[in-house]
Amino acid sequence: MTYEKTKSVLRDHGLAPHKKLGQNFLVHRHTAERIVDLASLKKTDIITEVGVGLGALTNPIASRVKQVIGIEADSGIIQWHREQHDLAENVNLIHADILKTDLAELAEKSGGMLKILANLPYSISSPFLFRLIDHQELIKWAVVMLQKEVAERMSAPPGSKTYGRLSVAVSLSADCEILFDVPPGAFYPPPKVQSSILRLRPR
Question: By CB count within 10 A, which of 31, 35, 80, 184 is most buried?
C-alpha cells in the first residue's frame, strides 16, 4: 500500500495507528520486497511474521513459502483482514501478543524451529529480542525491523560507545548483521527515528 492508501484505509475503517502498540505501517513496496529478498526464503518454509499490520510484508512472504503464521496484537487490524479477505490462503492470522505467546508451541507449528520476519513496534523491540535470546534453541533465524539505535547496540563491538547489556547478550548467543537502513518516509505515520533491518542467527 502507498502512504495515501494506507492513510485512507485506516480512516475509512475507523482504525488508527496506536501509540500504545507503537504502530508505524510499512508503505514502501521496494523496502518490503528487499526485506523478503534478503531473507532468502524457501518454498518449504513456515515463517512467523510478527506485526502483520496491513499486510505490506505478509503477502510477499506468502508468495514464496509454504505458510505464514501472522501474529498481530491489534484486534481492529485482525477484523479488517477477515472482512477484506485480502491475505493469501496460506496465511494463518493469529490475534496475540508475541511477548506472551508460547514460543515452544509456535515452533512446533513451524516444524520445530522458528523463522521470524518482523516489523517490530519500537516499544517492544528490546523485550522481544531478549525473549528470542532466552529461547535461542527454538530460533533458526530472525530478520527484524528495529530502531537503528537498537540495531547498532546489538551489533556493537566491545569498547565502542554503543556497547552495553544488549550487545553482550547478543554476542554471547548469536551472530547479527545490519542488512540496510530504512528512512522514516517508508512508514505511515513516519517515525521520528531511522530504522534498520537486522538479521539474527542464534548459535
Answer: 35
